[in-house]
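[audit] Reproducing an earlier prediction to check determinism. Same input, same settings, fresh worker. If the tokens differ from the archived copy the diff job will pick it up downstream; this log only records the rerun itself.
[audit] input (451 residues):
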Amino acid sequence: MTELQRDVVIIGAGASGLTAATRLREAGLSVAVLEARDRVGGRLWTNDIDGATLEIGGQWVSPDQDALIETLAELGLETYSRYREGDSVYINASGTLTRFTGEIFPVEASTQREMERLITVLDELVADIGPREPWAHPRAEELDSVTWIEWLESQTDDVEARDNIALFVADAMLTKPAHAFSALQAILMAASAGSFSNLVDADFILDKRVIGGLQRVPLLLAEKLGDDVFLSQPVRRLEYTADSVRAVADGMTVSARQAIVAVPPNLYSRIDFQPPLPRRQQQMHQHLSLGFVIKVHAVYETPFWRNAGLSGTSFSPYEIVHEAYDNSNYDDPRGTLVGFVSDRKADQLFTLPAEERKRIILTSLSHYYGEEALSPVVYYESDWGSEEWTRGAYAASFDMGGLHRYGADLRSPVGPIHWSCSDLAAEGYQHVDGAIRMGRQTADAILLNRT
């Protein structure tokens, strides 16, 4: 078995771990990055499927994501805007399709007023509570004791307004049912993006893409680190004292002064910590879980929806595919739609044979785009729930009451062990921007305290 000595061992070669490793090595420390998969990138993965380049995981860049934008510039990566010319589509509970422009769905005037009022209320709460320490706010316990849907029900009797506002957090972001997480967790999700209004604005939150795919970020970071990145090395045990660690992987061990665990919290239990982690961390990690979503890719010979004057942007909390977008690649004459199926709807679809599941999903897309959507030349489902080293999407969130109860210790080191991933971020939570922010923050904390 290979035995290495390093200043810092990093577990996980996603954007967060690789950012931390890069920053540490630039400061003169030696590092080793151990990755369980046979590739780098974690939840970023650009792959060729049947001749089509698809972004299996994360892919978008929004204007507020300063850390990601800075990293793209440093790596010499270019972006392009998501196609958004033309009308968006909304389908209501009765199945009626309406074309629209702007951010607010085309609903009855009274429902529109309620949606706008709710967005204003949420924007005010978000501005007051913020993303960094929501658990410390005077209303934290109150808001963490009521579910997202219960909070919405307390605010309005308009069912369609509730369904639509709930969609932006439950289906679209946390990928959990609206009764499974708290209003405080929903507010944190919005605060991490700058405001609730930003979550509502698809042109903001899904602004640009990286030419060649967002996985190029971790790929280029790993390339710079060279032989200090080790693939197919899942860490099975992490032994630690007050000032040392020893990571034991399948084919190697790394002894170091400090460790960074840069994987999602639901995977912490895959590591045998010796001695066991303190009681507080053991309890906290049991209250964090990932949601579940199917990311659907459908590639067509041409982006036919554009000829009909459609942008490709579509929404409905009442459809199997609750949202979909034009996801065509840069300078590619073919057209690609990407759609999303979340939580219980995804559960139900995975009880069906693959062909039946495909038929149902494409039928839902056809409700937005017409019969041409039924016949893609390439079809693929990103199923992160069955990825051994992820097991869900998009990021971990607390169950009811967990954020107020445990949030203050979410990022606290345990001796020489530090935690770093997008799931723990304030700004950029559950996005690659947050992963990079956490990688920088964790590396800086180590550098600040080095002797």
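[audit] rerun output stored. Observation attached for the diff report: The radius of gyration is 22 Å.
[audit] end
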